[in-house]
Hints:
Blueprint lengths: L2 H6 L1 H34 L3 H12 L18 H6 L16 H6 L16 H12 L6 H11 L5
Amino acid sequence: MHTCDRARRPGLTNLTFPLWFSSLCLCACVVSSSFGADTKKAAKVTYEEHVLPILRDKCIGCHNQDKKRGGLVLSNYTAAMQGGSSGVVVKPGDLDNSLLFKLVSHKTEPHMPPNSPRLPDVMLAVIEKWIAGGALENSAARRSSRASRRPMSV
């Protein structure tokens, strides 16, 4: 088709660009919203999925139900949140006052784990993000806390 022929058929040319442009905008919106959803999912750090594997590797040898060094059990969420003989070790949302983080990052003595180097930065970042994010037990924890904040309808 010659360019002059296109000019004589305005209906096809006038509809093609808006449809193409609308489709492009729709795709951009879908892609950007899906990236936002992935970011939110990735930002959620929980005890069961992220922190417990670190604790199993570095802490639970001494802080388990049988040994309870310092009265602290880290092998389950409820016991970890109760703390030990030094008191509460995890204060959700309050990294600066969470003794667990201070000890494993070697900011406070006794350094944990004892006679070992500080935990790798990757592990510390997970624990830091978990505490700062509210020290959630599992992925359902955030949903249930939101549900409890909603006013009941009568």
